[in-house]
Amino acid sequence: MSLKDQLDLQRLPRHIAIIMDGNGRWAKERGQDRLYGHHQGVESVRDIVEGCAELGIEYLTLYAFSTENWDRPVYEVNGIMELLVTTIRKEVETLNKNNIRLHVIGDMSMLPAHCQRELKEAMDITAPNSGLNLVMALSYSARWEILQAARAIAKDAQTGKLNPDELTPDVWEKYLCTAGLPDPELMIRTSGEHRISNFLLYQLAYAELYFTNTRWPDFRKENLYEAILNYQTRERRFGKTSEQIQQNEEIVS
Predict the structure, then answer these.
(1) By three-state DSSP, how is residue 88 classified?
(2) Is residue 21 flagged as an active site residue?
(3) What is the pLDDT of residues 216-228, one digit of tens each?
(4) Which residues contact 20 (CB under 8 A, 6 or more apart)?
(5) How many helices (H) and strands (E) does the chain have?
(6) Mind listing the pLDDT tens digit for each residue in 170-198?
(7) Cα separations (Å) of 163 from 115, 148, 153?
(8) Which among 47, 69, 198, 230 is annotated as catalytic?
């Protein structure tokens, strides 16, 4: 019996964000080069994207490459970029066929030109799709994003486009990479690390955090269902009391 059968389909998170950690350690544990782990991790991406689409999850954000990852050995960075290009070329038709729309957040200008071209083409092809929104965080870090937003707000205030007294959370969010996307309700990190590593620091304010020891190349749909089941045991209070939440639920029902 699959854990999928135990899910409450009426209480699924609308947006799931995942830190895909553990490719390198998974490979080293098998006496392989770190790049081997990244290649195997692509299979997990396929499986989890498919699983989210099957469940009707609206948004899936995958932390694929951080701004700090540029400091890794050159051969590994180059290998990841090539893997990114070949994967996009291979998968864009499948994404389109399954009504999945691709988005990218992060500093695209840091990516090699051929990566930028492939990503833009894939985003253009899938733009009309209305199913799962697959958001790839590439050359992304939350501190970079927040600085970019602060800089843009300061410029708009300087030129008179924005009154600083009218800066609200709704206005602030329009300056983030994730403008137009709902905040994640569930954040999953694989491979046993218990931190969020500069990922969506603003957007994860009320996300439920789930950590698993499973390395990313071993993470499959059953692991996803297990994480969602755990999420469904949480009481999401947003600063309110349990009694207030229960009263609201009674009013709605």
Answers:
(1) helix
(2) yes
(3) 999 999 999 999 9
(4) 41, 44, 45, 62, 63, 64, 190, 216, 219
(5) 8, 6
(6) 999 999 999 999 999 999 999 999 999 99
(7) 38, 18, 10
(8) 69
Catalytic one of 21, 23, 133, 223: 21
Kindly give the pairing relationship between strand 59-66 and strand 208-211. Answer: unpaired
Burial label, 49 (beta-carbon count in 10 A; 0-12, 13-18, 19+): buried
Per-residue confidence (pLDDT) for residue 239, from 0 to 100: 78
Residue 9 amino acid letter: L
Tell me if residue 102 falls in helix, strand or coil. Answer: strand
**In contact, 16 and 185? CB cutoff 8 Å:** yes
Tally of CA atoms within 13 A in the half-sphere of 239 that contains its CB: 2
69 is catalytic: yes
- Indicate whether this model's pTM tops 0.90: yes
Neighbours of 30 (CB within 10 A): 12
